[in-house]
């Protein structure tokens, strides 16, 4: 299957990209720097006409469908949590390879006490 250049393929058996997050379903998300508009297309921030797109802090990316199991310094590989989407929220979460520290920032290298 051919995927649009601005959509990241998340699973080789995935047939189509979903506009909504559905519990237990695989979804496509826009690549870094693009945002899902009200029509389900991946667009630049400037193309988000009248839509609010959060400005994320350093080392975080915007997700229309984040995870309830964001890796943290205390639990870098959360496996005891259901990996369902956080539905109905525009959310900033740590970029891949970063962890949520106790002070709320996203860090690539956890230090004692973070």
Automatic annotation (TrEMBL):
The keyword Glycoprotein is assigned to this record: no
Pfam families: TIL
Entry annotated with the keyword Disulfide bond: yes
Domain TIL: 56-108
GO molecular function, one term: serine-type endopeptidase inhibitor activity
Keywords, comma-separated and alphabetical: Disulfide bond, Protease inhibitor, Serine protease inhibitor
InterPro entries reported in the protein's UniProt record: Ser_inhib-like_sf (IPR036084), SerProtInhib-TIL_Domain (IPR051368), TIL_dom (IPR002919)
Identification of the protein by name: Trypsin Inhibitor like cysteine rich domain protein
